[in-house]
Amino acid sequence: MANVHDRLEPPERLVRTLSSGPAYGEAAQQWLARLPITVQEYLERWELTPERVRTPGGRTSLVVLVRRSDGTPAALKLGLPDGTPVREHAALVHWDGRHAVQVLDADPAAGALLLERLHGEVSLRSLAEPKAQLEAAATLQRLWVPPPADHPFPSVAEHTAALAGGLRELCEEPWAVVDEALELREALAAGETGEEPVLLHGEFEQGSVLAGERAPWLAIAPRPLVGERAYDVAWLVRDRLDTLLASPGAAAIARRRVAKLADSLDVDGERLRGWALFRATVAGVHEAAAGRRRQGELLLEFAGLL
């Protein structure tokens, strides 16, 4: 039994994130300490047999590969019960397996989701970059549907206002791009897009699309919002960041990527550039503040190129 308990221990990445990030406090520590017990409770409740914990895993959730009572493979995901799993569950239920992972069972208020098993080791990043971007764009476009009535999802304007608040205070160095990012957000949030708001994935990148059995590619781990499509495309602009920044003419490559994505997904190129710059800046400042300085500097350098 001790061996089973050991297999349910949180991976190092999750422990490190919740221990160092400025956004996490005592409640997160208590959730983390109790996590092996929580996993065992859901294994028993849903009659699951554990195989192993996915590593390195996410920064705020634990995924255990399991078998259901009939032998069907599945994935038990436990996230911080901070409202994020409730919104993730609502989006996945609304998509109902269309181009996204299927929900098999759930206790969203407690942060527990039982999901269909995908090939976690095979994401779009396993493809050559041009092919990966084509597949990513096709998947993302199909997720853009009208949100359900009385949905729990924040708007892009609300979400980015919260991100912008206190950004300068988090920034330990006087990065000029921070001022530009905040000014751009104000203009983008206030501007008219001329399009109907749609359900957005919220954290869409090549790594959040995995190979499946019932469909070639399925999206996972949404942080859903409602708003304009250009916001959802922004993370694709900075995909494979290390390779992009190491390439000669990185700024020109970044601008071409913005133009190609804007054209293929029919979004406004300037709005896409603005959201990509804002999101990269926010992510860079938060990474640096959490002690992941190198990644933070890379993101801020990338934002400067835009």
TrEMBL record:
Which Pfam families does the record cross-reference, listed alphabetically?
A: APH_6_hur (PF04655)
Where does the source fall among the domains of life?
Answer: Bacteria
Q: Name one GO molecular function term.
A: kinase activity
Instruction: Give the record's keywords alphabetically.
Output: Kinase, Transferase
Biological processes annotated in GO = secondary metabolic process
Transferase among keywords? yes
**Do you know which InterPro entries this protein is assigned to?**
Kinase-like_dom_sf (IPR011009), NH2Glyco/OHUrea_AB-resist_kin (IPR006748)
Q: What name does this protein carry? A: Kinase
Q: Which organism is it from?
A: Streptomyces morookaense
